[in-house]
Amino acid sequence: MFKTTYKGQKNLIGENFKKLRQEKFPYASQRQFAEKLQLNGMDVGKNRISKIERGESFVNDIELQIIARTLDVEISQLLTRLPVEKELYEYKEAETIRSIANSTKDNYSV
Questions:
Q1: What's this model's pTM, rounded to 2 decimal places?
Q2: How many helices (H) and strands (E) does the chain have?
Q3: CA 79 to CA 65: how far, in whole Å?
Q4: Per residue in 31-83, pLDDT tens?
């Protein structure tokens, strides 16, 4: 199953999440912040926090709401704005071509 990414990132909140976490909880480690998220109903550990911040982990809508509530911010403060539609279309087109090329290459590997 194909999952959408943007510039290699699996989420749009990574950078803002890290910045807001460090601003709101300056003395809390990723492990301690994971415990706060767990108290709000998100099953997460410090490794997943790190992956989210680096854009290496997908975040679903429920998790997004829990993160925003824990940080006491609006969801929009977490989200990074995507480029205008033309740039996004060109990026998706190039990503699709790369994906097809890679799958074709894999099919002919010996």
A1: 0.72
A2: 6, 0
A3: 12
A4: 999 999 999 999 999 999 999 999 999 999 999 999 999 999 999 999 976 65
Query: What is the DSSP secondary-structure string of 14-46?
Result: HHHHHHHHHHHSTT--HHHHHHHHHHTT----H
CA-wise closest residue to 21 among 78, 86, 102: 78
Q: Rounded to 5 degrees, what are φ and ψ at 98?
A: -60, -40
Closest CA to 72 of 32, 37, 35, 31: 37
Q: Is 68 left (phi over 0), alpha (psi -120 to 50) or beta?
A: alpha
pLDDT at 98: 72
| Terminal C-alpha separation, the chain | 24
For helices 30-39 and 61-71, the axis angle rounded to 10 degrees is 110
List the one residue out of 10, 13, 7, 2 whose CA is nearest residue 64.
13
